[in-house]
Please model this.
Amino acid sequence: MGGRLVLMGSGELAPTMVPIHRQGLAAAGTDLVTVLDSSYGFQENADELTERIRSFFATSLGARVTVASLRRADASAGVRARAVAAVEEGDYLFAGPGSPSYALGVWSTTGVGDALRRRLSAGATVTLASAAALTAGVKTIPVYEIYKVGADPFWLDGLDLTGPLGLAMVVVPHWNNTEGGTHDTSRCYIGRRRFDLLASRLDTGVVGIDEHTAAIFDFGAGTLRVAGRGTVTLLAAEEVVFSDGDETPLDEVAALLGSMRRAPEVPPSDDHGLPPLWEALAAGDVAGAVDALVATVEAADSTGARRALEASFVRLVELAVEGSVEPRRRIGGLVDLIVEVRERLRKDRRWELADLIRDRLGELGVEVQDRREGPVWRIGGGEGGLWSQDGAEYHDVSFE
Model:
């Protein structure tokens, strides 16, 4: 059977989203909203937020509200039992603002997450917005830890609410956020660069939801429908974008999102999933860095691995401009390695990947020239010399 999962990118209590809530309540056949407060349960103004949510549903939709209150994972057994029971009885369940990692810490250890999966499979409408929407998929971005605290990008295991219904995905709300102004806060505040690093480690497709926009997964009707001001992006082996009013069969959505299902090309080297190349460079392990780079290049026939390869090149060039050491001497050996790998690809007639490496190096300020006697390279441009390797020494040469 299956119910409806309504995922909102933001604006869950804004007038623009009232029609979506109204349709969800009608589909669920109820005027009672069951609110989960775990996602913001750590905040000092938690009571105020609950009252604001209650007022919104009462004033804007004429709906009644009951609260499945569970603000701590270590709450008493009675509090946990009452919260799970409220979820099990709910036909229209709602959760929104706060911290996704905090919500996961409560829901995944108290039975609430299991209850949400059961209700969705049994036909209820589950509406998750903003922070709560992040928890719905197979993996979850810990936004506070990355954006506010500065942790290196890593994934948390999500609730996977739709897995039992045959749809595996990762959900990213605030897809088009621009609050950073001078810095990129899209992809739920972490920005495109860090998101691309995370995406390269996924074996499941991504559903990116713009602000004031909803992705409505109706498992009874077998459709995904988009409503709101922005778009919904399905990102896997290819990228497909849907706008307000667009509707598509869920089996097509599942096929697209499942097209990324494979072993991760660049497996994480620690709990935070740092790419092996970065880890080796940080430790001064040149041999490990060489092995990691070769493995990344060899796997780079897929989109995710190419993103990882690009990120590795970015890191190499970043290292070249750090500190007081002459940059060409700092990374000369590693650039020689990249150029050598490219030369082998050329000999194997793998022109597309060889050209990709040359172009990415060029974009990062490393210019490569192919000569009869072999390739040479230089950092930057202008009148400066090229650098080529002669045994253990490096020397300037000039363009012919």
